[in-house]
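Hey all, sorry for the wall of text incoming. These are the four entities for the joint prediction.
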Amino acid sequence: MEKPIKKIAVMTSGGDSPGMNAAIRSVVRTCAYLEIECVGIYRGYQGMIEGDFAPMDARSVNNIINKGGTILKSARCLEFKTPEGRKTAYDQLRKAGIEGFVVIGGDGSFRGATIFNKEYGFPVIGIPGTIDNDITGTRYTLGFDTALNTVVEAIDKIRDTASSHNRLFFVEVMGRDVGHIALNAGVGAGAEEILIPEENLGLERLLESLKRSKKSGKSSSIVVVAEGDKTGKNVFELKQYVEEHLPIYDVRVSVLGHMQRGGTPSAFDRVLASRMGVRAVEALLEGKTNLMVGIIDNEIVLTPIEEAIKGHTSIDRELIRVSDIMTV
Amino acid sequence: MEKPIKKIAVMTSGGDSPGMNAAIRSVVRTCAYLEIECVGIYRGYQGMIEGDFAPMDARSVNNIINKGGTILKSARCLEFKTPEGRKTAYDQLRKAGIEGFVVIGGDGSFRGATIFNKEYGFPVIGIPGTIDNDITGTRYTLGFDTALNTVVEAIDKIRDTASSHNRLFFVEVMGRDVGHIALNAGVGAGAEEILIPEENLGLERLLESLKRSKKSGKSSSIVVVAEGDKTGKNVFELKQYVEEHLPIYDVRVSVLGHMQRGGTPSAFDRVLASRMGVRAVEALLEGKTNLMVGIIDNEIVLTPIEEAIKGHTSIDRELIRVSDIMTV
Amino acid sequence: MEKPIKKIAVMTSGGDSPGMNAAIRSVVRTCAYLEIECVGIYRGYQGMIEGDFAPMDARSVNNIINKGGTILKSARCLEFKTPEGRKTAYDQLRKAGIEGFVVIGGDGSFRGATIFNKEYGFPVIGIPGTIDNDITGTRYTLGFDTALNTVVEAIDKIRDTASSHNRLFFVEVMGRDVGHIALNAGVGAGAEEILIPEENLGLERLLESLKRSKKSGKSSSIVVVAEGDKTGKNVFELKQYVEEHLPIYDVRVSVLGHMQRGGTPSAFDRVLASRMGVRAVEALLEGKTNLMVGIIDNEIVLTPIEEAIKGHTSIDRELIRVSDIMTV
Amino acid sequence: MEKPIKKIAVMTSGGDSPGMNAAIRSVVRTCAYLEIECVGIYRGYQGMIEGDFAPMDARSVNNIINKGGTILKSARCLEFKTPEGRKTAYDQLRKAGIEGFVVIGGDGSFRGATIFNKEYGFPVIGIPGTIDNDITGTRYTLGFDTALNTVVEAIDKIRDTASSHNRLFFVEVMGRDVGHIALNAGVGAGAEEILIPEENLGLERLLESLKRSKKSGKSSSIVVVAEGDKTGKNVFELKQYVEEHLPIYDVRVSVLGHMQRGGTPSAFDRVLASRMGVRAVEALLEGKTNLMVGIIDNEIVLTPIEEAIKGHTSIDRELIRVSDIMTV
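and here's what came out:
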């Protein structure tokens, strides 16, 4: 392998997700292993524009594989959406001798990277870090598995109290545009119904389902609701609606919120992050650019970033069916 | 030890808390050990009125010591607040040959028990099962320790994402009248401020504290807020207030909700439950009544239920001071 | 879909693994959904021979999706290896009107199933339940993901104390013939070396690696060792060997043992179990037999059981490379 | 409060325990709050002798409250047991301008501190940090509560597999001289028998108990054994003994090992550490010395170190009785 590149940078951008630190560690250590210089960029594109850089060696990422969040911090950055902002960023990278970068983030972060790549021909490789699992070109995004475990553990606790009181709970989980967390966590937690943005179950069917559930002898019910569900009602409105139409139910609401983004990454996410980081650095050294590292059928693969952000992950119809069957 | 009593009942009442199952198990096994009959009453006083009873032997409580919630279920019961309801309950108990009962619950449940005891001279012993730790006559209520761990683990996750984005979070925890969960979990989670019902910190001081925190170089802040805090504002209003007065902060809100009531009980709560259950049964057999089992300085003690519910637990001033010092 | 089969059975066999209960639940509920009778067989083939059966309806599997172990119990059964044993088992199944069964277990259990199928033409479908992930025809076996999380969490704790004392730990994990747990958990836990049955790293290289690790400034080291590693030494002998040759190290040993088989299943294993159970029942109803349900690239697929047990899963060379790079 | 002392040091010594970092943080922040200089001593007395010091300010202990282990490291130090070693240590402290220190550790560490104090009149305050809970003058040592939770969670997992196979497990837990972990974790995990150093149950009684347990219909059994139990047999010998005398049992062994020392501290240990650290610094500033901070009935108290190490914690007889009753 030739080494056209002598110095690369790594950064995290957009919403954080568990496994980002493990991916940073992997990028940094792969650089150390291949004797390339590595620089950390703080606070995503904002730090790139401000030149908020720090050199990173193998030891600087000790003991972070099991930490949630990102030691490089993350931030939204409006300035990078302007040509001027990107020009400043480019100047900062050049000044620091950086010849390529790895960006760990979601589709917003990738959009910025690909525009930047086109304008300046600057080598970029993306690693999909988001709990939403909404990026094509990879079966799993970094953090999705951990978030599922967090949600399922929280619902296990809620079920304890739900079944002690024969209550119905609406549990809101993250997912503004996609229902992957809701659907998988709902099946994993044994939810009676799952409301996702991709499907309009309809309020009528929800009531039917709840009535059936009650009749079948279930002592409690959990309905998992993605933030962006299509009923047009948020969890508090759903509670009110059900209480009006099914007064037999004592309804409660729980919004899981930001704890879903944090926490010690699962074994799966740590291994995935380690593998993706290696491939990202290698890809840069192979002269590749504008690609995203993904995992398909347990193989690490590369996809053009533009495809990754253009595509649209679709919900797993089979899993919806499994969910229906499980709530018999 | 004479055995004036041949058959006792056990029930859970009011809001559930982790450790209730371990306490049920302890009551049932102590009865088996002492060769007393034991009956489980389902759904608290409601089940008592309805005669919803089931015999329980040592094996019927296998594998529940580590389960959250209560296998005997719990319920609110307005009917038991009426003389007629209590009369029916008394008749049911007599009909079933029950000569005393152990009620696991909070102060509402104890109030019912003590009235019933006075009216019918029926032997009752209480075990304090509530996450709020708001009952006098015991240093710890069953479930408090587990709830603290649940809250602290959730805030650990929230801090991951808070510090990745330099955000301020208001985290609402349970505690309508008392701030024990908020204060202890706040100290345990390293919160920057803790708002509790017992203290009116004042919004001015909150702003001062947050300003100081920012100046001291902290990258993120967590403010723990008990449901019943005295600022007169809920977490969403607090968010708005701070955003108006300290626009430097990117503020988020998280309401932990009912997951605080569930989950596998901690080692502490399981041991406490086991000890309390033994003492409760023994007390009944010793002819005692209208008492609550508590723990003071690691000794199991008995307190008149009336004192337990009349008293008022006060907040630990030293812990408030510790919290202030820790956020230097 | 025609329904040639009216009554099926489900059982667990061999070593237990997390997710078995979720798979039982799925089989039972799918039967209920499709209005087929379902029977649980206790203690695997032993219970089959003894006719230890119980009817199972949708409610009989309430609240088990998150429980480790198997409510149907498991057992080794020498008798089923004899023609007489299998004859008795066949008679029991016929007597009970059972027309097909789903066996959840590892390759030993599948071997029995396929012989039985050949002898009696009895419809059988297998679900791969084992923490070892050593079965071809599926990317993941039920319980593997949970076991990885258990191991990684345990090593995280061990690392706390290792790095406080600058110690070297040999941690033995399960895997007599295959190193999947060791390799994945080793990468996930950031182990300095990983010893697996598939590779003879050699003691010399281990010493070299440890010397390099010390020199690079690492304060502590974890070496993950699969039970069946090829160095010819167990963890206690490894400790002795290293202490003799590298007296600079203060070495400790930890054998994780059977806790790796238990515990609440991860979200991944619960979803996988739910999907596999549905497919298993459907396959029986479609008249299929002697197949194992697997997951390949997130699709549920069927493989002849004979292929599944003949094949040999190979270790992921790329992951060995990732591990090498990570320990730079 | 006058401030005779302007600069203090903090260190951890002996075996590490969860909560040590939270105590370090508390000492450091209390110094910052009171405007005293604070110095961290690395690797206990060894670092004291070598002058391995570093200044610590409030921000240097960010994000450690929830970390196991100790950021100041720990070590055994033979040299400090010699007058020459202590002389060197004293010189180092003087040279650095340190006027008092807080040592977080067990009774070995306290012994060193009190000798040092006598020889040089150097102000020292101890904080009891050990998972064994074997120090008088405090109801709880730092790390005990976390260790109990770790053990109970591990046994919960072991029970899953034990009850799936109707097996008997001997689980060895830490406690060479004292059985507090074994007794409390045994009760918390619902163990059938608990073998501790303080009691010689006798092998006969163990067999009797196991026979009774089998007869009573229990499907599996867990026996918790403290390292230093009095039967004169280790867990492997116990396994052999039981297999010979009770061939009906399929016996397995699990040695939990060093994972018991690590892990994220529980809420209880974090709060305790925070309170103890504040009191330790205040005591030094009040001119006190040679005392240990403890907690008795939820009050922070001071005890002469010599009493703390002379005394002997005794096992809780009531808890042994509770354990007996629970295994009916």
